[in-house]
Design a protein that fits this description.
Layout lengths: L2 H6 L1 H4 L14 H29 L26 E5 L9 H16 L2 E5 L7 H12 L4 E4 L5 H10 L4 E5 L9 E4 L3 H15 L4 E6 L4 H17 L4 E6 L6 H13 L4 E5 L4 H8 L3 E6 L10 E7 L1 H13 L6 E3 L8 E3 L8 H16 L9 E2 L5 E3 L25 E2 L5
Helix pairs in contact: 4-11, 7-8, 7-12, 9-10
Length: about 425
């Protein structure tokens, strides 16, 4: 992909991302006594809640799934003389965006023999980011991977300052033709497949979507999901609730709860925590996770997931550093590389839907099907993609995938946030 493509996208994608971070001794004795009393009450309440859940029929026998955690990263290259450094916005935790990147980094390091350095909880646009990269380089890093959008400008400046170090930036659009590149994947393909499961599962025909920021990446995913929903259930709608944060479990949970209170019986998300799933589980609703297969965190609610497998890409990137072939630029692969996948399916997903998922997956891999091939209308009913037409990844004007800024028919809410 040409550098010009990504740089022209700057006007469309110049958004600031926000990341949320998550008594004295005299009071200790009294607090401890109160806590013990509260603990007893809590145990009683918990027992009542479990009984209520059982009586309400929330527990779905046979609806859980075995989590998919991609581990197929291999390499024939010995990169033991390469040191690869990764900067994370949050700590890896046990699910979510950073977890998926860290797992991929570990798999790639194991497959290639590369040395792995990591640092976590580095805010975007902060002096800590630049200092972390400088520290990595001083420690001998040959390649630096920055895994959040807001690191991009600093990465560009550092790549110019250190031409002998290779710089890789996730989700960005800036690059050069030598040592600075960006990488992402067509996660909208997996979103479409999860939409098939949601459309078949909803009984109210109202699906909720907890979404972070109104940027093309997120809008594109919502649209693809909705198109999948409506392939199997033309009467269903998808209502979007914006949170203006990538990671804030409290905010994500409240956004999901508002959608559930409004009638949604399936919740999807473009967020980093499991909070939406936990609210869906408590409400006897269903849930579609993102970033990783989170089925273990809300097993009765879990339906399907759109997941990342970064290990394969990271192994290839490290190999390109080892053999000197990396030359910047951008990459945006899809399911054909395994970078984006659909995770496990709940046991109660019907065989018909499983067969359709398999069919659409193979068609997307072969290139014979694209979720955005028309005819497609916007949410006001106006045709935006003509029959048989698939928008290009990028164009100087008109609708294109990397700059998608309108919602398709079936989405309820504003694409402006």
């Amino acid at each position: 992909m040409q550098r010009r493509l990504w740089q022209l996208l700057a006007v469309l994608l110049a958004f600031t991302l926000v990341a949320a971070a998550c008594g004295d001794d005299d009071e200790t004795s009294s607090s401890s006594s109160d806590a013990e009393s509260s603990s007893s009450d809590a145990e009683s309440s918990s027992s009542d809640a479990e009984s209520s859940e059982s009586d309400s029929g929330c527990e779905r026998s046979g609806s859980t799934a075995n989590p998919i955690k991609p581990d197929d990263t291999t390499s024939d290259v010995d990169a033991s003389d390469v040191t690869a450094a990764f900067v994370y916005l949050t700590d890896p935790g046990d699910a979510g965006w950073t977890w998926a990147h860290h797992r991929g980094a570990e798999q790639a390091a194991e497959a290639t023999g590369a040395n792995l350095l990591t640092v976590e909880n580095i805010p975007e646009g902060s002096p800590e980011f630049e200092q972390s990269v400088r520290d990595f380089i001083a420690d001998g890093a040959d390649a630096v991977f920055a895994t959040s959008f807001g690191y991009m400008d600093a990465m560009e400046a550092l790549s110019a300052e250190f031409p002998d170090v290779d710089f890789f930036h996730a989700t960005g659009y800036l690059s050069n033709d030598s040592n600075f590149g960006n990488y992402f994947g067509r996660i909208y393909q997996a979103r479409y497949l999860t939409g098939l499961t949601a459309g078949a599962a909803t009984e109210t025909n109202e699906i909720g979507y907890v979404a972070a920021f109104p940027i093309p990446e997120v809008i594109r995913g919502i649209n693809a999901f909705t198109l999948g929903v409506r392939e199997v259930n033309p009467d269903a709608t998808v209502t979007v609730n914006w949170t203006s944060t990538w990671f804030d479990p409290a905010v994500e949970g409240e956004a999901a709860q508002a959608l559930l209170d409004g009638g949604a019986d399936v919740i999807a998300m473009h967020q980093d925590s499991t909070a939406a799933g936990e609210r869906a589980e408590a409400a006897c609703a269903r849930w579609i996770s993102y970033n990783s297969d989170m089925s273990e965190f809300a097993p009765n609610a879990y339906l399907s997931s759109a997941i990342w497998n970064w290990g394969h890409y990271y192994a290839l990137a490290i190999e390109s550093v080892a053999d000197g072939s990396f030359a910047g630029g951008g990459t945006w692969p899809g399911m054909e590389t395994g970078m984006v996948q659909i995770g496990s399916l709940a046991d109660d997903v019907s065989q018909d839907i499983r067969d359709l998922i398999d069919q659409r997956s193979q068609e997307m891999i072969s290139g014979s099907f694209d979720p955005f091939t028309g005819p497609i209308n916007d949410q006001d009913g106006n045709e935006i993609i003509a029959a048989g037409v698939t928008p290009p990844d990028f164009a100087d004007d008109g609708l294109f995938l990397l700059g998608m800024s309108v919602f398709v028919e079936g989405v309820v809410g504003s694409a402006e946030g």
